[in-house]
Amino acid sequence: MAESVTPAVVIGVDGAGRSHRLDEIAAAAGAPVIRLGATGRWSATGPWSAAGPWSAAGRSDTAGRSSAADPPTDLAAMLDAALAAGSLVLVDDAHRLDGPVLSALAEAVRRGVTAVIARVPTVDSRELAELDEAVAARGVVELLGPLDADGIAGLVTRTTGRPAPAETVAAILDASAGIAAVAAAIAVAPPGTPSPALVARVQRRLSILDPGTVAIARVLALRLDVTDDVLATAAGLPVDRLPAAMRALRDGGLLVPGGERMIPAVAEAILADLAPAQRRRVHDAVATALLTGGADLMLAATQLRAARVWTPTAAQAYRAAGERTRFTDPAGAVEWFDDAVNAGADPAALAAGRAEAAALLGLPVDAVTAADPAGAVRLALVDGAVAAHQGRAGRAAQLLLAADPPGPVLAVPALMATGRAADARTGADAGSAVSPATNAGLHRLAEAALAMADPVAALPLFIEAAEAIEAAPPPFVLPDTPHAAGAVIAVTAGDAGTAEGLLTRALAAQTGGPVAADRHRLLLAWVRMRVGRYDTAVDELRRPGRALPGRERLLLAALAAGIARRCGDIARLREAWAAVEPVLARGVVDLFSVEPIEEFAVAAARLRQHRRVERVLDAIEETVTGLGSPAAWTVTLGWIRLQVAVAGEDAPAAVAVAAQLAQTNPTGVRQRAQCTAAGCWARALGGEVDAGAVTAAAEELAAAELPWEASRLAGHAAIRTTDASHARRLLELARDLSEAEVSPVDGRLDGQPGGLSQREIDVARLVLAGGTYREIGARLFISPKTVEHHVARIRTKLGATSRAEFVAALRAVLGDDRQS
């Protein structure tokens, strides 16, 4: 008897497994089962099973009644027989039955027939609602939701005969949204192609829908985020018909459960079934609807491009897309501007936007005339920025100062870097025409540049400018970023850590676009090389060939010269000199390139070419004089001349430079260390070595983040002293101050765990053992000050900001698993 089966309403979208659930109920039934399909035909297991399926037109005896072996003659008779026999009636796709059939079923259920019906979520007729209510009143309602990961895994195993890896299950779940039939079709499909079975299934579903709903499905297959108005317009439907169409698509198992998005795999199947011309028409319809409705032009432009539309309206959309993306995606913007030209746009109207995108990519900027005054101002700003990128700071300053606002305020850093302090103040004053609210970063950058005569005082202002420009990037191509300029100033102030932080932030924020990314990477490598960390510089030198603007070619050559000098490779030093000599021949230098030029000056001296850089050093001196000969930059220039004298072993020149530096009164720690070291170095070149003074000066240089120079000072003094014990101590100090050396053969670092040198590893082990600086120095025969210097550098290399982090990092690097 069917009393063992609970009447039920099984609800689920097409493909969710309604028929499968009815099969499970039939298999578990303890009574004959009659199945009624959507066509009104039924089949039975039990007394009539041998006769197969029947409908109301089935066979009957001459009395009009069914015999024991024959089926009932009509639906009412079948239901009477089912009630008498205690049969279970299973109704699949109840939502597709005619009203009279649904009414007869409802009446039979009320008379006691046990029924299980399956339907889609939408109840769209009174008769279906009555049947649903009659069955639910005696039983339960089952809702077939999407499968979870475990359900998908089981389905894939049953479908393919083998278990699926977790990543495959996750991919199928994502593509199918958990709809069983969709997942089963994907599981047996060749990888990387739309499932043929799913394409066929979608074709069948769409074939029974009205044309308007099919049009909605094709628009949804593009998987765009559009409003109801745009969706309806693109499909050619009145917006009031959209809810019914969406319900039909949901019931058909084409939408993500609980949402209005197309199931990803279903969307692919719909698009795969469309001919290219049909697909383009869908894109065109969407783009037209977007433009008509005033929606996002980027979305409209994307659709027009997909439809390959080349009309004036499309040209307008492509230009708008280029303008919107010129700073966020300059490469994409160039393509949009190309599309606009192909669609008939006036190139002059696109000139400014295209020039900005090209400048940010480091590409040549076409010499064109803008179509309007605003475009002309933008082109002038681009010209100034490109001149700066090429390393022509003087030319950049002139172009920007002559441009309309914000040109003068953008010119301030270049004006200061070329020694034109009065003009820089004029440019900053002209910046009042630029709204501080919308361009705060430019004002902060100008303020920082005006203060750069004193690097220590200027550095906080450059940091503030960097933060402001990160928060609100200005709509201009920057001649230089505050991060790059601030990094150079930070190194001059003896604060390499801040320089590294600024450059790392700039790379993360992509400040200044792709053309600035090369600058930030090369400056970062240079900063690290200055403090004795060579791996980044070596990596940059190994980077595949790329077209760099003049300013960055100078930096790259400085890295090559610096690495060659530090590993004593004269051949590579000659290569580096050959690369930079054409750049220096232009005779254009500025304060932001002073420190890298030190590498070329020393290289020239080593190669007996020091006269070739004398003109460059004289130009730097003119610039420093133009700023009023501030102590910090006077010492920086004097230090370069000292290094040239040392490289050429020109003792009289070294003495003269040291005497000049002794007359300055710098406030910066770095400059004070350089002045002290200059005197020791000059005396050592003349054979006068005070081991104690040299040791103190070398340690002061190392503390000011000039470890290479500190090591060279100690080494030069060691080979010139006549006291053997002093020579040994100074050579040991030189080794202690040296960082991991660079192989002169292939540029490799003789690295140790964590990038530490062997001496640093020795110090680290004693730190872990709890030794004080004095105790560690006594063990290693070095001064406590040198130990302190080593610990500071180890902290920097390991990125430790607290003692706990430092100890944990040391244990990780040295393989010490003791607990704190």
Strand tally, please?
6
Unreliable spans: 47-71, 740-751
> How far apart, in Å, are the first and last alpha carbons?
74 Å
Largest sheet at a glance? 6 strands, mixed
**Mean pLDDT value:** 86
User: What is the spatial order of strands in the main beta sheet?
Assistant: 3-2-4-5-1-6
- Count of runs of 4 or more consecutive helical residues: 41
Estimated helix fraction: 55-70%
Cα radius of gyration in angstroms? 40 Å
Q: Please identify the structural class as seen in this structure.
A: mainly alpha
User: Overall 3D geometry?
Assistant: elongated
Write a short abstract of this structure.
This protein has 41 helices and 6 strands. The protein is mainly alpha-helical and 820 residues long.
Write up this protein.
The protein is mainly alpha-helical. It is 63% helix and 3% strand. It starts with 7 loop residues before the first strand and ends in a 6-residue tail after the last helix.
Using brief descriptors, characterize the structure shown.
single chain, 820 residues, mainly alpha, 6-stranded mixed β-sheet, 41 helices, 3% strand, elongated
Q: What secondary-structure arrangement, pairings included, does this model have?
A:
Blueprint: E1 8-11, H1 18-28, E2 33-36, E3 42-45, H2 75-85, E4 88-91, H3 99-111, E5 114-119, H4 126-138, E6 140-143, H5 149-160, H6 166-176, H7 180-187, H8 196-207, H9 211-220, H10 228-235, H11 242-251, H12 264-273, H13 276-292, H14 297-306, H15 312-325, H16 330-342, H17 347-361, H18 373-389, H19 393-402, H20 407-417, H21 421-430, H22 440-450, H23 455-471, H24 482-492, H25 496-509, H26 513-530, H27 535-542, H28 550-566, H29 570-584, H30 594-606, H31 611-626, H32 631-647, H33 651-662, H34 669-685, H35 691-703, H36 707-718, H37 724-737, H38 758-768, H39 773-780, H40 784-798, H41 803-814
Parallel strand pairs: 1-5, 1-6, 2-4, 4-5
Antiparallel strand pairs: 2-3
Helix pairs in contact: 2-3, 3-4, 5-6, 5-7, 6-7, 8-12, 9-10, 9-11, 10-13, 13-14, 14-15, 15-16, 16-17, 17-18, 18-19, 19-20, 20-21, 20-22, 21-22, 22-23, 23-24, 24-25, 24-26, 25-26, 26-27, 26-28, 27-28, 28-29, 28-30, 29-30, 30-31, 30-32, 31-32, 32-33, 32-34, 33-34, 34-35, 34-36, 35-36, 35-37, ...
